[in-house]
Design brief:
- The termini are close together.
- Strand 1 and strand 2 form a beta hairpin.
- The chain has two domains: 101 residues, no CATH class; 234 residues, MetI-like fold.
- It is built from 14 helices and two strands.
- It is flat.
- The chain has a two-stranded antiparallel ribbon with strand order 1-2.
- By secondary structure, it is an all-alpha fold.
Length: 361
């Protein structure tokens, strides 16, 4: 197991280097640098002024060299103007160039400066990732138990009426993307003019105009059921159907195994057969799908956070992309790559604990 983990960590490091370099190369293409120069300087800058700005801010070096600077394995760039003032990647406004460090990249904890938020990238990402972590936590709390129950109930008796109803609902939820379900939820539950809210208000069931809030901005200060319910349901709905279908397929396959039939013939109660014999083996495939939901959630929150104006990781990514914030985009890519690789490693290790018969070659 230790050798497997070490080997996987080596592959993860190599994969992270390749993926981050690809993102770095794409975000540092000449058109993006020119757009950044004009947004930071002036939209009326001449081509010569743009080229000078790019050179003065360390963007004129080769891509591989600048990637090494961003990573922190190559000395950061410096520039001395006509007045003798020296500035650079590792030199802050109040820092002495003589005592400033030479290496200041991602490995040293310096992820750059956000041109949109006007704060260090790592500080800004930490704030917004914390908000997204709460959203992902509640999505998983709602999504995982619900989908497992639906999948197990559908797979226990294949072909029954319960199976057909639950399978149809799972397919419908999986076929509905977040931007569609989110709009439907807002129109149905968060609109004072349409949906259920006017009826419930008229009947005296609710005192406010809407059952839920159509925006989750207030959840940044305090999470409540009313301002956080719709984003959670919007993201969880798609995942519930997907995990439920995988659980149902796995449960159906396990229920046809010989040891299940033997247990039934020995007079073991059906509930005990499901809980003690079938469920553990049936959870191997859904476990993989559940672990892969974490990378998917980073994509799902982009839609939900933008739709409900919740300022988390997805909202930050959209804002950075729309305003050509190169350093913030690179920081978001590091987070995304880290989440994908770590969840895959946890998924592989979890196989052994779910099924001891699995051996690692």
């Amino acid at each position: 197991m230790l050798k497997f983990i070490l080997r996987r960590l080596g592959v993860m490091a190599l994969t992270a280097l390749v993926l981050t370099f690809v993102v770095f190369y794409l975000t540092n293409l000449p058109p993006n640098l020119e757009k950044l120069a004009r947004s930071e300087g002036s939209v009326r800058m001449t081509d010569e002024a743009v080229a000078a700005w790019i050179a003065q801010n360390g963007f004129a070096d080769p891509v591989v060299h600048r990637y090494g600077q961003w990573l922190g394995v190559v000395q950061g760039w410096t520039y001395t103007d006509e007045k003798g003032v020296t500035r650079g990647r590792c030199i802050g406004q109040n820092d002495d160039p003589a005592t400033a460090p030479h290496y200041c990249g991602v490995l040293q904890g310096n992820w750059g400066w956000s041109t949109v938020f006007k704060h260090p990238v790592l500080e800004e990402l930490g704030t917004h990732l914390g908000a997204t972590a709460w959203l992902m936590l509640w999505v998983m709390i709602v999504m995982v138990p619900t989908s497992l129950v639906i999948g197990v109930l559908a797979g226990m008796r294949e072909g029954s009426r319960t199976d057909r109803v639950l399978s149809t609902a799972s397919i419908a939820s999986t076929a509905t993307p977040e931007y569609v379900s989110g709009v439907i939820f807002v129109a149905l539950l968060a609109s004072p003019m349409t949906g259920l809210s006017p009826l419930l208000n008229e009947w005296g069931v609710i005192s406010s105009k809407t059952l839920f809030q159509g925006t989750a901005t207030s959840a940044m200060d305090g999470i409540t059921f009313w301002n956080f319910g719709l984003p959670v349901m919007t993201i969880a709905l798609y995942g519930i159907g997907y995990i439920a279908r995988m659980t149902r397929a796995s449960m159906t396959e396990v229920m046809t195994q010989q040891y299940i039939r033997t247990a039934r013939l020995k007079g073991v109660r059906f509930r005990d057969v499901v809980l003690r014999h079938a469920l553990r083996n049936a959870l191997i495939a859904p476990f993989t799908v559940i672990m892969l939901q974490f990378p998917w959630l980073l994509n799902g929150v982009v839609v939900a956070e933008t739709l409900f104006n919740y300022k988390g990781f997805g909202w930050t990514l959209v804002t950075a992309a729309g305003n050509n914030d190169i350093e913030m985009l690179l920081g978001c890519s590091v987070v995304a790559v880290f989440v994908v690789l770590v969840t895959q490693l946890i998924s592989d290790i979890g196989y052994v604990f779910l099924n001891p018969r699995i051996r690692l070659s």
